[in-house]
Predict the 3D structure of the following.
Amino acid sequence: MFASPGSIAFQIGPLAVRWYGLLIAAGVMLGTTLAHREALRRGHDPDKLLNLIVVVVLSALLGARLYYVLFNWDYYGTQLSKVFAIWEGGLAIHGGLIAGSLATLLYCRTAGLSVLPTMDIMAPSVAIGQAIGRWGNFFNQEAFGTPTDLPWRLFIDPYHRPPSLKAFEYFHPTFLYESLWNLLVFCVLWFTLRKRLANKPGALTLSYLGLYSLGRFLVEGLRIDSLMLGSFRAAQVVSLLLVAASGMGLAVLLRKK
């Protein structure tokens, strides 16, 4: 059993520094370091990559927030002041992946970079960044799962519990499940597939999408705050599509000599 110590890491006068922002920053810094190292190993221009990362991070944050806000417009439409309050949580990774991918395509075209090798350089960094960033949900007491009495259950304060589950104290730490899965995905990409797939541009990126989406599909089934597409969980629908697309893409790439 464990519980969040609170969303604020420390406070300097009126300025509150939150764990959510610190963890996102930590994920970006580690991911940037790894991508820079990989660019040097592959003989790519590291300066162009660093410029790209700045563009991608900003685009991904904006896309992740916009995706989340649009799916919760019933609330944000009446609370416009909360639309940009990302320190309170509310970032959807699929929105970030869409916006980040579009930013990568546009930047690579203007900077003269090859799209698929560039994405392959960044794919492991995305996975480790997600593994770190998910802990922001822990400190914010969000993105948790259904009630449970398992030994690793997560205590949630009454204020953060859904009205229908006020009587329950302990829930599945789905943030932890996804963080551990993302860490595993990173290890597979970085230590096992990175060099083996170096001569198959795009294969590492497709491997990331497929592996991440498989874990996200399973974890999403436990969450109680899923964004919905009608009667379906949006994240599960997108995850299934990405698993299918990555599987077909890898089948084509790996068959090419």
Remarks:
- Residues 200 and 253 are 7 Å apart (CA to CA).
- Strands lie at 2-3, 8-12, 15-18, 154-155, 170-171, 228-229, 232-233.
- The first strand starts at residue 2 and ends at 3.
- The mean pLDDT is 95.
